[in-house]
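Changelog note: in this version the structure field was regenerated for every chain. One regenerated record is shown below for reference.
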Amino acid sequence: MLSKSPETNPLILDLGDGVMLELVKIPAGKFMMGSYEYDSEKPIHEVQLKEFEIGKYAVTNAQWQAVMKTKGSADCDKKFQGDFQPVVGVSWHEARAFCIKLSQQTGREVRLPTEVEWEYAARGANQSKGFTYAGSNNIDEVAWYGEIGEVAWYEEDYRGIVTHPVGQKKANELNIYDMSGNVWEWCLDEWHGSYADKPENLKQQGNQAWGDLNIDNNDNRCRLLRGGSKNDDERYCRATNRFGDFACYQCDVISFRIIIVSS
């Protein structure tokens, strides 16, 4: 079921059992994508987008269970399974399966964001103030990050570092939360090591993914991850930072948020 809040007029998805999923409308526009920081973020280029709506938060365990009828973060320690923590331990394929099922329930096109949509929303779209992170130049205001410190990934202390409930830090210019830090987020596109070979038509169609989507669940090509996580330092949490991993990979710092394509 779809509804509009009378106060702020966001799109609200009623997932049943009192579980809601809120989205923020992102206006059509254009922006300069990328940065000069790392080769993977070059060259800076102008991209145009149509209007879309994006999840205000990463998908939570409660939302996953309401849609998929299975326990959120089921393959992770119980410390990761709180209702308001982002669902983790989901592969790119599983994130897409959630979108497909929610599409069937709502009658709307639900999918993962393209990399362009993700960066445009993280940077504040037409309300952007040019922040380094999603909503601030002060990372402590907007992100959970750097919590691993000097602990090696295989040590017990690392396994004790858990995700934080969504929405506890400051939102960005569009009232979207946690696009820097806490969890990495899957995007729809295949991973490319830079923008150097990006097709010209995709610069005019930022709502279209770069790469092959006509695949089965065994396809393990690398897909885009954005946002950084609770375990990463500041550079990985920048709004322009890019990373990729195998589509079948599952990890307790990887989650996703959804897009609804505007009619």
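Spot check on this record: The radius of gyration is 17 Å. The longest strand covers residues 19-26.
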